[in-house]
Amino acid sequence: MTSTDHELISLTATAAVADLQAGRISPRELIDAALARHEQVDGDVNAVPTLCIERARAHAESIAATEPPDDGRPWLAGLPIVIKDLVDVEGVRTTKGSLIHKDRIAERSDILVETLEAWGAVVLGKSNTPEFGAGAHTFNEVFGATRNPWDLTKSAGGSSGGAAAALASGQAWLATGSDFGGSLRNPASFCSVVGFRASPGRVARGPRTHSFGIMSIEGPMARTVADVALMFDCQTGHHPLDPVSLPAPEVPFSATLETAPAPARVGFSPDLGGIVPVAGEVRDVLAGAVSSLQTAGFEVAEAAPDFHDANEIFAVLRAEQFVTNFSHLLDSHPEHLKPDIIWNIEQGRLLTAEDIGRAERARSKLYQRVAAWFAEFDLLLCPAAIVPPFDGAERYVSEVDGHTFENYSQWMAICYAITVTGCPAICVPCGFTPDGLPIGMQIVGKPRGERALLAAAHRFEEVFGIADETPSIRNKIYIS
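RESULT FIELD:
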């Protein structure tokens, strides 16, 4: 890897796009730099197991001959990106982390990919994910485990762990992820990058088995908030094949990062009212980050909505979604499903209509409590993960401070409680443990409040001042 390659991979996505648009660099140069970095580090990290090099180079050539759309939306101008392996890319192997699909070649691209490519993105490869995206630790029987660039013995989180690790290790400038119970926010925290869960419908996707579902969404990941906003603008928009998709805003979200009003009053809770235990190291880092915000002039008070029944609501609705999406696979390929997925499907099959109705009623009441709370506060702050990155040899976090979790998803309550509300949320790196492991802050915005949320996250990122911190694996420079 040359020093020039190292300079290119060190650019922010925003800077790289500016250079592409000005003709100072070419998409092919960025592709080559990313491939050189992949060759250098991915044998250790295992973040991007599938590449589509010739497809990327061909698409880059076509973009070079294309006039960008003239509607004010950002144009990526040939920037290479990686796509989570749950999402189809035409002509590219898409396994979903499952032995059932280990040799599958996608016949057409997901709407998400079509949209990004229409706005100038070049797909370079597919990022690793746990089987069908189930779980917040990225490992599967097809490609193995993704390792954390900050400490290769630790988990990169999940289910967008490959995306987060690719960003942190310098293999990509932008990456797609998805989020049901925290799959954008958790790996962002573990890898010290930014993961953004927007409101349902902001990013069109599909066609899907569960087209009307709004618990699971697609979203952007990047190294900075500005880069996330850039990618988000290139993902938004209505599509007729996605029944819940929303129109893109007239003014791009990235255009108002500096001008949107600052938050007047911010609430902070280290554990969302005690719904889940939080490790002391995480509490300490979050407390320090909140203190920094207060010193910078933001009004932050300890306060949060009432989330007392979020665990029960999510358990029912998650099980219902697993039956919808995967029940047929348990009938046809039980030998190829990991135990956690089988358990979740079986939980769903035990549900009654009354169980689901009770959970939906409770969810509606929870939303009303949260909406009322946001009449007094502009933002809610809390951890994005309840522990620092954990041992990569473990399947999931089973215990924190003497509290034992009953299943593989309960430790993600700090994120899935927010999922249930439908509110947008972003994870921004805010500090490190004494051992040098990353910790992220989850910032939750008002319903449909993406613009104010992104602007606040951008301001907070500047206060924390660690966006340029990189893991040691990023700092290796090989001169050829």
